[in-house]
């Protein structure tokens, strides 16, 4: 449905020139979303796919292993949309205090994303509500160091920003003036917390994402935080016990359509086209996450059987393999400490895994060697190539 208007324009000063800034109407849309027919069926399919994803704990002996890896995969993908060149292996090397193969600021940006997400998850699990204060806290984590750290981390903007174009006057989109941001975000908070209607949580997440991106309340980091908002809203809303749904890969694969639909909401009020796109993304992404978990379970079982057939020394090799399942990039010192085995024993066990083709050494050095669980990282890396 195309609505007459979904907001109004206000005059604002940006970069020394006057611009028309867009102020969105509070959610939910008026008139209400059309949910009959095919759209209702798509909502049901997406909800069912989320249910399958939520049951992923039944597949995995330790769901936290999957969450650890998936959070980092999402951090890489979401940051790539903003232009970083980091890979998952770069991030894991950085977390090992090893030198990644990309500029320092790129990998710091991805690491900050992990910190922001983990902070948000911890706060929700501690009973804190999903609110503007939490979003500001997460933004502070997101922008704590590296690129953008000078752009008021944790604070709503007090100056006009714009999206696209070489200057405010030819920008593709100009978000609300700074004096409107607090009121817009207060209205969004009420909607997120279910105070302004009883829409299913999936639809609240769909609408809240667009509204957050339209308000663009921070000077930097809005895209990444807007994508995190979806995962946290589904988690807090009870759709997922673990925050395992991340749409960055879907948005990355359909970037042009994504931005076109955001503009369609702002200029024509076409919320339905956006919702169709979003629900299809949820269904595909949830299904893909379940398939990934199944493939990882199969890989872990297959590799464990291969190690067990090795006879003497298999017990230590299995202990090292278990550590690589927790973190697929490790050095020998860390492995020895975590497995409580001597360094030579850890080295011998790792040699067994390398000979079996399960692990691979990354540095080519004789000392301070770093090893990767190759097949595991390859599965997680699918779709994660830098743009």
Q: Explain this structure to me?
A:
The chain is 57% helix and 7% strand. The chain has helices spanning 38-54, 63-81, 88-95, 104-125, 132-142, 178-192, 201-215, 222-236, 248-253, 255-268, 271-308, 314-326, 332-339, 343-355, 374-381, and strands at residues 7-14, 17-24, 329-331, 359-361, 370-373. It folds into two domains: 7-291, Fic-like fold (Orthogonal Bundle); 309-381, Orthogonal Bundle (Arc Repressor Mutant, subunit A), CATH 1.10.10. It contains 15 helices and five strands. It starts with 6 loop residues before the first strand and ends in a 6-residue tail after the last helix. It is mainly alpha-helical. The strands form two sheets. It has a three-stranded antiparallel sheet, with helices on both faces. Strands 1-2 form a two-stranded antiparallel sheet.
Task: Summarize the helices and strands and which ones pair or pack.
Layout: E1 7-14, E2 17-24, H1 38-54, H2 63-81, H3 88-95, H4 104-125, H5 132-142, H6 178-192, H7 201-215, H8 222-236, H9 248-253, H10 255-268, H11 271-308, H12 314-326, E3 329-331, H13 332-339, H14 343-355, E4 359-361, E5 370-373, H15 374-381
Antiparallel strand pairs: 1-2, 3-5, 4-5
Comma- or semicolon-separated keywords:
single chain, 387 residues, mainly alpha, Fic-like fold, Arc Repressor Mutant, subunit A, 2 domains, three-stranded antiparallel beta sheet, two-stranded antiparallel ribbon, 15 helices
